[in-house]
Predict the 3D structure of the following.
Amino acid sequence: MSRPSLLWLRRDLRRSDHPALVAAAASGPVLPVFVLDPEFLDPAGPVRRGWLAATLRALEASYDGHLCLLRGDPRTVIPALALEVGAREVHTSVETEPGGAARDAAVRAALEAVGVAWVGTGSPYAVTPGRVRNAAGDGYRVFTPFLRAWRTHGWSDPAVEPDPLALTDAPSDASAWDAVDAALAACPIELPPAGQEAALARWEEFRSRELAHYDERRDLPALDGTSRLSAYLKFGVLHPRTLLADLAGRQGDGAQRFITELAWREFYADVLHHHPGSLASDLNPLEVAYDEPDARFEAWREGRTGYPIVDAGMRQLLASGWIHNRVRMITASFLTKDLHVWWPHGAEHFLAHLIDGDLASNSHGWQWVAGTGTDAAPYYRVFNPISQGERFDPDGEYVRRWIPELAHLAGAAAHRPWQVPDGYAHGYPVRIVDHAAERVEALARYERARLSRSDHARRHL
């Protein structure tokens, strides 16, 4: 038998539509391997660790038990494994996030030092970040022109799994599987079904039942109107190219809106690729006077702000590891505009609890709301948590689902308990700030920052 190739899996935890697997199989038998890297795993909260653990168990089954699970620094673990099994090549999907790209560069150098080739094929995106550029050859910073260029660029057809596929084994680190099982046991939420089969089943259900109404229902948190595929996309259990291929030729508003939402994910990854510093800092710096997190920040994290739609979202996050996208924007606006807290504090909290916590989408989604990111003129946007709740949860169903203290309030009254005689009868907290006053304050702070930047620019002409 010819020497095996390693398939080092990271954000591509699947077997189908996997270009790196196809490339590896062309060279002979394939050894799939995943490395539990403390640098990436330790900062993750128990929810993300639990979801990764469930996904790895499903991945092991999809590779018929051939998954080699190791633990440690990939810069030493991967070269050591390659030498142990006599591999000539290590195949991977290309990583473009800053931390992952730096890690890969180090592993590639270590492999080349021992005579093992590095082969990167495909990426977690339909269009690999960096490939869509404007006329000047730069990356886009505004979504709409990116969307046009992204559609024009297009993407490959799904990769066809080799048949037959020769898989080989290497001993796993027993402590690695123990860590996986411990992470599953410690996960504080009920996880959705994990793995490629579950993801494809969810996609089929959404496509057949909800996609046609997606454009009109995706903003209504009380309905099951979204795909709930983001957790699978997070670890590459599904590839977006698979979804796009299934949508080819569908012209309905729901399908087109869903494609646009996939493009947002690709846009944010592209922005991060071109501007790696924007992971934890403002893409468009604006010297706003922020407040340090205090007791009000804790109230926001725990869903005790006194604004029902905000609190429902934050409690949904803690209880389920997921929060509806419309409500993500509302809760983010409340933190940055009503409490005047810099967005990385909120982004870090989201990442600690979301099973779909994507670095690029999370950081740039927060910046979009905060007014320091990719939007052209966003600083004056302040979401009204009351009117947003009444508009997108008109019957109060979502609020009552997550806030039992308001379950006795019928209809839209759930959004204004202060206007109902018994609104606070079951212990719901009073509002921690006056939204109208804080909106004025937020706009004043942003205007001072904008004028200060303009003055600074004029002085340096």
In short: Strands lie at 5-8, 30-36, 68-71, 89-92, 117-120. The mean pLDDT is 95. The longest strand covers residues 30-36.
